[in-house]
Amino acid sequence: MFDLEKLVRKSVKKLDPYSCARDDYKGREGIFLDANENPFGALNRYPDPYQNELKLAISRIKGVPAEKIFLGNGSDEIIDLCFRVFCTPDKDKALTFSPSYGMYQVSAAVNDVKMLTLPLNEKYQIDIKSVLPRLSDKNLKLIFICTPNNPTGNCMDRSALEKIISRFNGIVLADEAYIDFADESSLKESLDKYPNLIVMQTFSKAYGMASVRVGMAFAAPEIIRYFNKMKPPYNISTVNQHAVLRRIANKSYFTGQVRKIRSERMRVTAELNRLSVVKKIWPSDANFLLVEVKDADAVYNYLVDNKIIVRNRNSVAKNCLRITIGTKKENDILINALKRIKK
Ligand SMILES: Cc1ncc(COP(=O)(O)O)c(C=O)c1O
């Protein structure tokens, strides 16, 4: 059975977190002489450490109660926190799939946690038979599942996902960075069913705010409390909290961009499929395409020479380039450049 208290690293349970001025006095009115701030100017005050106003706004758009929301300095902070809360260095393990988002592996290494990597099958889906025997490993604490997956673009099969979540006594993090571009619904609807599930989303992709660094984790309040205990007190700046609040208020900006990117994804797929240099385009639920070409290194270098930068994924997916969907004009430049490649 899943038991959060057994899972959390001992030192984290004992940890006395830093208590900042805003933890001691939570009111908003008064003369504030408690945080050694400069009394002058507009950016002189420390941010709200728990981002309460922003969480309420996110709660409204995502339909998740504020106490089930954690905000990180990008999703990458949330990935790192998972290792720091749940894994004892040089002892515990995590598991992910390949090819997938590289940061899980890097974050594991930074935290001195062994990462097991299972290959996705020929359709870039989870091979459930290879996962199930691993779930009983006592030192396996975390499983990272990226859906839609980067760099393959596809959503993971829902029944395989739910099998893993329901049979594993550790934490499953479903990374839904690209979910707003997908037809599939979010796993956050299943949070009440699975106390060991963390669903991660971000403002970096569909909301077009990669520079502000705000990632979201949706999970049981007990998990959120451990994240809050471990995070640096002021992990999201006031400027960035306000920027996200403004973007959320403008719903049509978000829906319009997602619509445009999805429709360009369809158009670019159709155009690229006509080109002889393209061997295969993997179906995408994200804002990028995984495109197999005859010689990825050569095509990559040719595009760079033409000042078009895509991601060469040859090292993880043979002869594949990961191409982000840009504006119509940018996509046309890419398509025309690829058209000029001789057979
Ligand atoms: C699958 C996936 N998760 C998370 C991230 C990082 O998101 P953030 O900008 O919120 O750190 C990326 C960035 O490319 C990604 O591809």
What do you see in this structure?
The protein has 343 residues and is α/β, with parallel strands linked by helices. It is 36% helix and 16% strand. It contains 13 helices and eleven strands. It has helices at residues 4-7, 10-14, 21-24, 52-62, 75-86, 103-110, 128-131, 158-167, 221-230, 238-249, 251-273, 296-305, 328-339, and strands at residues 69-72, 93-98, 114-119, 140-146, 171-175, 197-202, 215-218, 278-281, 288-293, 311-312, 320-324. The strands form two sheets. Strands 1-7-6-5-4-2-3 form a seven-stranded mixed beta sheet, sandwiched between helices. Strands 8-9-11-10 form a four-stranded antiparallel beta sheet, covered by helices on one side. The protein is globular, with a radius of gyration of 22 Å. The relative contact order is 0.13. The model has no long low-confidence stretch (mean pLDDT 97). The structure holds pyridoxal-5'-phosphate. Residues 74-76, 101, 146, 150, 175, 177, 202, 204, 210, 215 line the site of pyridoxal-5'-phosphate (PLP).
What is the CATH class of the largest domain? Alpha Beta
CATH topology of the largest domain: Aspartate Aminotransferase, domain 2
* C-alpha Rg (nearest Å): 22 Å
Structural class determined from secondary elements:
alpha/beta
Cα-to-Cα separation, first versus last residue: 58 Å
Let me know the average pLDDT. 97
Tally of discrete structural domains: 2
Number of helices: 13
Q: Percent range for helical residues?
A: 25-40%
* Cα shape: globular
Beta-strand percentage range: 15-25%
Task: Give the ligands present.
Answer: pyridoxal-5'-phosphate
User: Would you report the number of β strands?
Assistant: 11
Query: Could you spell the SSE succession in H and E letters?
Result: HHHHEHEHEHEHEEEHHHEEHEEH
Main sheet record: 7 strands, mixed
